[in-house]
Write a structure and sequence with these properties.
The structure holds 2 protein chains of 2 kinds. By secondary structure, chain A is an alpha+beta fold. In chain A, 31% of the residues lie in helices and 23% in strands. In chain A, β11, α10 and β12 form a beta-alpha-beta unit. The longest helix of chain A has 25 residues. By secondary structure, chain B is of the alpha+beta class. Chain B folds into 2 domains: 102 residues, Immunoglobulin-like; 152 residues, C8orf32 fold (Roll), CATH 3.10.620.30. Chain B is built from 4 helices and 10 strands, in the order ββββααααββββββ. In chain B, the strands form 2 sheets. In chain B, strands 1, 2, 3, 4, 9 and 10 form a 6-stranded antiparallel β-sheet that branches. Chain B has a 4-stranded antiparallel β-sheet with strand order 7-6-5-8, covered by helices on one side. In chain B, a hairpin with a 3-residue loop joins β6 and β7. Classes of the chains: A alpha+beta, B alpha+beta. At the A-B interface, α5 and β8 of A face β1, β3, β4 and β9 of B.
């Protein structure tokens, strides 16, 4: 088996013959559905995804621009109680992220009290002086968060990474579910699975709830995309479509008199709420990048004047920065007064000499990450790396230690997955989506499960050969 | 000192523009030693102006104009009362902690030679070191006129023969930060009885126990009552008096007419 010693979420530690008691019926479904039937259904789902155009571009690989992310037919399942505990931790985490952003760009109490090294925030490129002292409409910063989690046992969940800028992947959650309902209807008959298809409604409700007060009954909301060449364009258009709002590019928006307008055939329409899927750098050339021709000149002025809500708020990068991540337990404690319900993965900050020494001494056992990297790039997975790769990272760490953190290689949980040799456990992670509006915090009952398809691999990023699975959350009093 | 400022900026376009959006950092704010008596920004075409305070504490005016615009003149007319305080800045809005101003930018990164130069001349106690850096830069670049920003970086300017007041201010900032002193760029005005084609620029550095102190490497001295502080930033781009975008084709021609005069009385 690929994952010796890892906890399998359905089969437990004992393998297919002795599944976890609560998952007996699901294990039976897996065992009793012929493998070639599962294969057939999986291929059918992938054909649909290709037709829909849910593809993504692999960075630095132009030939593979039209690749779809592989889909696995065996769902990942959360029991109702597991989910309830997880949700509490997610709500606490996201509330802390919001409180942190409000503080950092406001009174900066957490810096004055020395809870975080001040230079880690103030000298961090992700701390944006352009939005210093701006309070977004209704005081909401991180409207849409994707919190990446890993699991090592029945009740052992860890936060691997917070995504408080423009987390993507929600279209996979929705499309995967649709495919599962079509291809495996018996599962939805036998199990009571919480629906996820209300996500676009929840998102629209969240957007409307943070509209600046303009005395209007229905605020005008838009989705702002960099354009069709963006790797997540499918998701941008999908979300705009399913919410019934306009999908716009920067050139479609103008700012006049500190108010944002969308140019339409019928003339200008005032815009109240923008769900942007564009990085801060390319939002407004007057505020962020005078050398850039992209963006909407004046957008930040309109935002500062309180005339438009921007989801997520500009400047959020400081909250999900990997260097800040290691202080999240302190941040949660500082704002909530309690301990974090969802712990962090143990993290060595290479900027600290003792930590650096430990990391250099144990490179072969650790995962090393660039503080400002994402998508599995600039990352060393010690146990599977070649010695040349390890030496390359050693040199980089010595040259610029402040740019790196390191974490232990965790025995990530597995879920049975279709492979060329039949069903086998493969490592997974999980990205649930948490929405925050002026009316509260909501956790969508589901999320994006990413699976490392290569035997033994711990890297689930789609750019590195990962796939996805549907993620079931069971309703109360339902067994699996 | 009572200082009158008249600063006109004229844009002429080879083809009419559809839209112009500008961010103006052209309005001084009050400090203990600087009181704005009157200030007015005018535009010679149909435009909307909106005022705000930015994240650095600068007074910012957004300008929105709809085309067709063949030419645009911005006029800034005002009067400021200043007093002498040995270059120490008191009573300015400081929404960002000094530590923030240790942050480097592409335009204020020190090259090896610049860093060595700074370390050489400024060895010793912090405040004295900064004064020596200021004087040494003036010695190296005795002539640093107020010319429009060419987008030059500190390291590049340090290796050049001729520099502007903008360049030498950025060189000072790069050097000061290299020495561990938070430093920032200041854009403003100075009455020296000469004609100018651009506002003046200098630097401020933070010294523990004293606070923010002005240094003008274009003169080798600290700013006195003949200076009017207008905007601060991490570098020349961040404190640019005018940042603009236009929608439309063609070239633009820029003319600046700037008078900074000392008025009688109020000595």
């Amino acid at each position: 088996m690929a994952a010796r010693g890892a906890f399998d979420e359905i089969w437990g530690h004992g393998g297919p013959a002795s599944p976890r008691a609560e998952f007996a019926s699901l294990a039976r479904w897996i065992a009793e559905t012929p493998a070639d039937e599962l294969q057939r259904r999986q291929q059918s789902a992938e054909v649909t995804f290709r037709q829909l155009g849910i593809t993504f571009a692999v960075y630095g690989d132009s030939d593979a621009a039209e690749r779809i992310i592989p889909f696995d037919i065996v769902p990942r399942v959360f029991l109702h109680d597991e989910w309830a505990r997880l949700s509490e931790g997610l709500v606490q985490r996201v509330q802390a992220i919001n409180a942190f952003l409000e503080d950092i760009y406001g009174d900066a109490r957490i810096l004055k009290e020395g809870v975080i090294p001040n230079e880690l925030v103030l000298l961090n490129e992700q701390f944006r002086p352009e939005v210093n002292r701006v309070r977004p409409p209704h005081g909401v910063w991180a409207h849409i968060c994707g919190i990446d989690l890993v699991r090592t046992g029945p009740d052992e969940f860890y936060v691997l990474e917070d995504n408080a800028r423009t987390p993507s992947g929600v279209s996979y959650m929705l499309e995967n579910r649709e495919a599962m309902i079509r291809l495996c209807p018996e599962l939805f008959r036998d199990f009571r699975v919480e629906p996820v298809d209300s996500y676009p409604d929840m998102l629209l409700q969240t957007m409307r709830s943070v509209a600046p007060h303009m005395g209007k009954s229905t605020p005008v909301c838009v989705v702002l995309t960099p354009g069709h060449f963006n790797s997540a364009y499918y998701e941008h258009s999908f979300l705009a479509d399913s919410m019934g709002v306009e999908l716009v590019e920067p050139a479609d928006l103008v700012v006049d008199d500190d108010v944002v307008f969308m140019q339409t055939i019928a003339g200008r329409v005032r815009v109240d709420v923008i769900y942007r899927r564009i990085d801060d750098d390319y939002l407004d050339p007057l505020a962020f990048r005078p050398d850039s021709m992209l963006g909407v000149p004046g957008l930040i002025a309109a935002y500062r004047a309180g005339n438009v809500a921007i989801l997520n708020a500009p400047g959020n990068g400081i909250a999900d920065d990997k260097a800040i991540y290691s202080y999240m337990p302190e941040i949660v404690r500082f704002y909530s007064g309690g301990e974090a319900k969802l712990p962090n993965v143990e993290t060595w900050r290479c900027r600290e000499p003792q930590a650096l020494k430990y990391v250099l001494d144990n490179l072969a056992d650790l995962v090393v990450k660039l503080v400002d990297g994402s998508g599995g790039y600039g990352m060393l997975v010690g146990p599977t790396a070649t010695s040349a790769q390890i030496e390359e990272f050693r040199a980089a760490l010595i040259a610029e230690p402040h740019r790196y953190i390191a974490q232990p290689t965790l025995a990530l949980s597995t879920v049975p997955t279709m492979t060329e040799k039949g069903l086998a456990p493969r490592h997974v992670d999980f990205r649930p989506f948490v929405l925050t509006g002026s009316d509260g915090v909501r956790v969508v009952p589901g999320g994006l499960t990413r699976v490392a398809l290569r035997e033994g691999s711990l890297v689930v990023n789609s750019s590195q050969g990962g796939g996805t699975k549907d993620s079931f959350v069971l309703s109360p009093e339902a067994g699996a | 000192m009572r200082i009158a400022i008249e600063h006109r900026t004229q844009y002429r376009f080879s083809q009419a523009q559809d839209r112009i959006v500008q961010m103006l950092r052209l309005t001084p704010t009050d400090t203990q030693d600087q009181t704005v008596v009157s200030w007015r920004i005018g535009v010679d075409c149909d435009a909307r102006l909106r005022e705000a305070i930015d994240g650095f504490g600068n007074a910012v005016t957004m300008l929105y104009a709809e085309g067709p615009i063949a030419a645009l003149e911005l006029s800034v007319i005002g009067e400021v009362l200043t007093s002498e305080n040995a270059g120490v800045i008191c009573g300015a809005a400081e929404p960002l902690p000094p530590l923030f101003y240790l942050r480097s930018t592409p335009r204020t990164q020190a090259s090896v030679t610049l860093a060595e130069f700074a370390a050489d001349v400024a060895a010793g106690e912090a405040l004295d070191g900064l004064h020596r850096l200021n004087a040494a830069l003036h010695g190296r670049f005795p002539d640093a006129p107020d010319l429009p920003d060419r987008g030059c970086a500190a390291a590049q300017a340090f290796a050049a023969k001729t520099v502007t007041s903008r360049d030498v201010a950025q060189i000072f900032i790069a050097g000061a930060r290299h020495l561990g002193a938070p430093a920032r760029y200041v854009s403003g005005y100075r009455t020296d009885g000469e004609a100018h084609s651009a506002p003046h620029a200098w630097a401020e550095a933070y010294v523990e126990a004293l606070g923010w102190i002005g240094f003008d490497p274009a003169t080798g001295l600290s700013p006195d009552e003949s200076y009017v502080r207008v905007a601060v930033g991490l570098d020349a781009t961040g404190a640019a008096p005018i940042a603009g975008t236009r929608v439309g084709h063609g070239r633009e021609q820029l003319d600046v007419d700037l008078h900074v005069d000392r008025l009688g009385g109020e000595e």
